[in-house]
Amino acid sequence: MATRQANRCKSDLPFRFIIVGKLPHLDGMIFQWERVEKSTKDKDCRDPLLIIEWVLLSQHRSKRMTRPQELVAELIRKARTWIRKLAGSDSECIHIPIEKNLGQITKAILEHLIHENEALQFALDSYTGQISIHRPAHKLFREKIQFKLSLKSVQSRRPLKALTVFTDASGTSHKSVITWKNPQTQQWENDIVEVEGSPQVAELAAVVRAFEKFPEPFNLVTDSACVAGVVSRAEQAVLSGVSNSALFNLLSKLVNLISHREQQFDVMHIRSHTDLPGFIAEGNRRADALAAPVEMAPLSDIFGQAKISHQLFHQNAPGLVHLFHLTREQAWAIVSMCPS
């Protein structure tokens, strides 16, 4: 005790902050770093690390799925608030461990990371200190830092020149549908499974099957904004507060599949029951029809199919001609007979 002394903090040393831990349990440490003259003769040299405070994440989060960038942002925000209370100023340096498998980490890459994440923008707002991807040379940091923020994402920011897969589901028929056009045969293929639960759960089940079925690059098209949002947030996400066991299992599968995926994918949301022209709208209509209940399923009579399709989706006459290869007179007859 006479030679070793623990201090709350040293007023002449600046504060630093570092992210430690391993997903899903990330923590932060507010510390000070004291320069110590190393001597080969002095085996009992002082520890340069002064641990000031541990910063912990809240156990109850408002989101069911939280991305690692958002966890890092929450820790930074808490640490900056606490350091201002302790010292009346900001920290000198924030250490964020980042994967280096992309080669040299440049300033432009770090700026891109912050630009792409709103939570980090708010957490680092008005910060004038240093952001470092390096950790101080200390045994504790070697043991505690197992998490590294990845800058690489398998989700593409634009549609890929690859297979396009459409998903849909119905709460009435409980059908969970995947449909796609085989690039070799140019024929439409389907994968239909009955799933109990809400339409969102059934469509989420379809999305999980799509990721299981297609390890190659593909575009995913869904008419559920909720499901599209879940897919876009799933990579390396941390789940919390999901009481429904079926939903939790589906979300866990999705997070695992996307987090360990090697090939890129793109997810697109399209408005349901649209009569717009083009391949995307056509694939979505096919998925809609496959998910429909039996009494609304396609008939052998093309004219009858067109009538039911118009009652459901209200296509115009040119749309019916394009989809069902009717004459213009037949299409106009269907449109004119519709009371709406």
From TrEMBL:
Q: Which SUPFAM superfamilies match?
A: N-terminal Zn binding domain of HIV integrase (SSF46919), Ribonuclease H-like (SSF53098)
Q: Which residues form the Integrase-type domain?
A: 301-340
* Any one Pfam family match given in the protein's UniProt record, by short name: Integrase_Zn
Q: Give the highest taxon in the source lineage.
A: Eukaryota
Residues of the RNase H type-1 domain:
159-296
What are the protein's UniProt keywords?
Endonuclease, Hydrolase, Metal-binding, Nuclease, Nucleotidyltransferase, RNA-directed DNA polymerase, Transferase, Zinc, Zinc-finger
Q: Which Gene3D superfamilies match?
A: 1.10.10.200, Ribonuclease H-like superfamily/Ribonuclease H (3.30.420.10)
Spell out the coiled coil positions from the record.
none
* Cytoplasm in keyword set: no
- Answer whether the UniProt record assigns the keyword Nucleotidyltransferase to this protein: yes
UniProt GO MF annotations: RNA stem-loop binding; RNA-directed DNA polymerase activity; RNA-DNA hybrid ribonuclease activity; zinc ion binding
Fetch the PANTHER family from UniProt: ENDOGENOUS RETROVIRUS GROUP K MEMBER POL PROTEIN, RNA-DIRECTED DNA POLYMERASE-RELATED
By what name is this protein known?
Answer: Uncharacterized protein
- Native species: Hirundo rustica rustica
